[in-house]
Every structure is written in structure tokens, then in C-alpha cells.
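Figure S4 source data
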Amino acid sequence: MPHFLSDVPADAVLAALSRSPGNEVASGKFDSPESSSALAANAFGWFLERPSLLPSLPGVPMGRPEQVEIEAEMRFPWTGGRHPWLDVAVTTPTTLVGVEAKRYEPFRPRKATVFSEAYEARDWGAGMAPYDRLRGALVAGAVTFRHLDAVQLVKHAYGLRTQAKKRGLGAVLVYLHGAPAAWANGKPVDPAAIRAHAAEAAAFAARVKGADVVFAPLRWSDLLAQWAGVPGLAAHAAAITARFGRL
């Protein structure tokens, strides 16, 4: 059984992880010292049973959390096929916030991902036009990202918008990412790659500005700094840094 941080409800987190198709625990991926799933589950799992203690995420228009979920499916408006799963979903009175958390993934080689014809056939609404344009540019090869998984993020935005609209809520997609100085084995992460990844996140945000799904890049370090300044969360923030290192 994976080892969780103190006060993280292990049974509830494991139940959530078991519902997702990633097979993180059974495959052993969750126990990897570079696992982003373990980081997100430990960081946000603490709030599963006390969502009101989660502050609004830095720079994210969201309101006060009422519910926090680990591994949340954001189904598209069709049956069959694969649907997006976000690492964290936070529900407030006004907003559905989906969190896609990354750690080392942007600095590894990525497999090519594509859009199926279903994305082109669907009318996502005028408010999603910025994502539609970016999707078209990605398919045509007019826009490329080396470190940012832009295809995944666009898909997440469509799924998030679908579920938020059903609930009568606004939608925010948070891209929670790190800038680790070194891999778990101590080998340095290329600083140029870290800078390029941050630039790509900013470029993605600029391209989808004004869409119904707000895109909000957020550094792990900024999130943990916020938590460290909250008396009731300071110990949790310190425990995350002690377990996972500087993010």
C-alpha cells in the first residue's frame, strides 16, 4: 500500500485512484520517486474531508471550495471513447475548477497525441472558439509545443466545459506545474527546458484568453508558498516539500 502523508485520508484517496483508468497504484507508478500522481494525491487529498480549508488557488478566479475530488472524470457530450480525467476537481458555488498537475513530464520525451474526428464534428459553442482555433493550428502543424502537452490541455478544456455547463457553473483549467532543479536520481534538469516550458504555458494561456474555460498556469512553488502562509496549512506544505523536494 502506498505511503501517504500524515492526515491524508489514505482509504479515500485510494478509492478515488481505483476509479480512474490510469492504474497508477497497481502498476507501481504511484510509488515512483518522480510520480506526479503521488504529489497531487498527497497535496490535495488532505482536503477531501475538509474542502472548506482549501484557499482559493493563487491567481485563480474560483471562490470558496465546497468539494474537492481526486481523479475526476470530465465526460464529453458523447458516449463511448475515452474521456478526460483531471488530477483534481474543486467545486465552488460559482465555478468548476479542474487541475492538471505536472512534475517531471514536461521534461521527458512525449508521445504524439492527436484529435479524433469527433472534436471537429462537435460545435463547442462560441465561447470555446479560442480553443477551437488552437486545436486547428495544432492539427495543421502551424503551432507546436515541445514541452507542453497542448493537445491534452485542449481536450481537458472541452471536457471541463461540458461538465461545468451541465452544473450551471463557470470553468477554470489550472495547469499546476513545477520547475524541478534535478531528477530523482540527482541529475540536473536542463534549465533551458524549464524556461522553455514556462514560456509555452504562457503562450498557451495567451492563445485561449477570453474563452469560456479560463486557463490558469500555476507553479507548485507558488501554491505551496500560499499554503505555508496559512497557519492551519503550514505543516502540510512543509510535509509536501520534505517528501517531494523543491518544486
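Figure S5 source data
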Amino acid sequence: MSLAASSTPGAPLLRVDNLRQWFGGGWLQGGGHLIRAVEDVTFEMARGEVLGLVGESGSGKSTLGRAVLRATEPTQGRIIFDGLDITTLNRRRLRPLRARMQMIFQDPFASLNPRMTVGQIIETPLKIQRRGLKCDEVTARVAEALRTVGLDESHADRYPHEFSGGQRQRIGIARAFVMEPTFLVADEPVSALDVSIQAQVVNLLMEIKRKLDLTILFISHDLALVGHICDRVAVMYLGRIVEIADTRTLFCNPRHPYTEALFSAVPLVDPKRRRERIVLKGDLPSPLTPPSGCAFRTRCRYALSACAEAVPPLTRVGAKHMKACIRDDITLEPAV
């Protein structure tokens, strides 16, 4: 099977079908219990699209992002990238695709090797993927990447501990973009930064996105930010996508109670407006022992006894709007 793109015009760049990512089964989990971090996730991403992935900590967002890139081995399901099923490709056959699929990590401190200079960190992907490049060509590419993210090329000789958090995240972005990828997973790329720096990093991401026509899976807790930069939004709860729609539709007409609860925490721009703050009961259930039926039912104020009977599938409620909830008789509070 050839690794060349086999997609047809207009086909999605990425398609994920019934993806599962389970962990455990060892002695730490009692010998047989499984952590169902990602459970039957299905979605598509068009070329050039920015898809926001939101949900509480522990909902499986980062795990899903890593599984899509094959940074971890999915337990079940299929990942189709540019028309090619990459789910079971071995390391040798997957390697040429790594240049097109990159990731920006959440922690700009832990994601950079403190023993390497900035130049060595950025040039490593080039040395692995572009072995035919000469030393001066690699140096030029590193310098260009640093300039693109707003750093000086002289910074290539310095070490990560010599930079601020915002500068370190820029270095991580430079490392991802030096390969000129087509798909990017941005895992909470600004959550560890000061508010004053977040806007700069987001604007930088969007500028490079337009330059490279990138497709981005943008993982974030910041719903206001997601609403500003994303074309569509997927809401994740305990390993499952419970609602997905284009951004405007989701913010104006949420159809899942969990989405409504998330929106209730977003501050309103108009100080004269008031909105009920929905406080969810209890903690996020454990993926070791998820509730029967709808996983959100134990914290949902609209739950019925029928919610415990079966896991609700994602069903279409609009042209580009899907939800996993049996309640069609409720009107939920929008974000705007």
C-alpha cells in the first residue's frame, strides 16, 4: 500500500471512526480493570478547519489528541488521514507521515529538553525527516522558524531555562511548524501562560495557520477563546463526544445539558445581563467504573430514569449539529 495521499477532492483531511483508547489491566488496576479514557469517538475534520475540543479535566481530550496522532496506540477504531488508514501502520511506514502531523504541548516547561539548545530542539525533526538537508540548510530553516514565531535567530544557542513561559511556548510552536505540517494538535497551548501573553501566542498560531493552510484540533478549557477562533466545536465528557456543531450554532443553541453547564461558567460581556450558574453535582465519574447509560446522568439536572438504560448515540439534530442526549423536550440556555 502506498503512503501517497489517496483522498478525493473535498474529502475530509482527518476521519476518526469509533476510536477507543483504554489503559490498564495490570497490577496497579487490580489485574483486570480498564480505564476507558476514550470511548467510541467518531468525527471528521475538513481541510483548513479549526475544530475546538472542550470539556472538563479528565474528560479525555488530550488522550484523544495523542491517539489521533498515533502517539499512543489506539485500542480500537480507525484513523483515516488524507485518505490513508494509519491505524495499524508500523513505525517505518508511519514515519513519513509524522512530518505532516505535529503537536503543540500544554506545558512549555516540560515539553522542551533542558539539556538541548533551542537550535537543537528545533532542528531535531529536520534531521530525522529531512536527512538530505545540508548543515547550512538546517541552520537556515531553524533561523527562519525562530523569526516566524517572533524570536531572534541568535536564540538558537541558548537553553530553554533562559526563556520566559511565553517564549518557551513559541519555541514549541517553532519546533512544530519547522516541518510545515498540514495537521496540528494544539493541546491547551496557552493555558500555562499569563493572560497578557495568551493573545500573542493565539494570534501567532492563527497567522501561521493561514500561511500553511493548517487543519487544527484545538484542545482548550477556554470557551471564549474556542468561540473566537474555531469553526466547529466538539464537547467531550468522560471519554465520549456528547455534542458537536459549528461554533455559532453550538453557542446560540446548545442541545446537551453538559454543554449548557459549561456555558454557564463563561462570563457575559454585558454586565447588565445575568445568567444562572449551573453547579454540577459531585465530581467527574471515574473512567474505571463509568455510570450505566448516559455517563452525565449522575450530574444532570434533567436526568430521567430512562437515561440509565442505554448509552445515547450521537444523533443529528440539525444540518451540522449532533448530540448524545435523549431529552428533546428541553430548552437550554445559550452562551450568548
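The longest helix spans residues 195-212. The radius of gyration is 21 Å.
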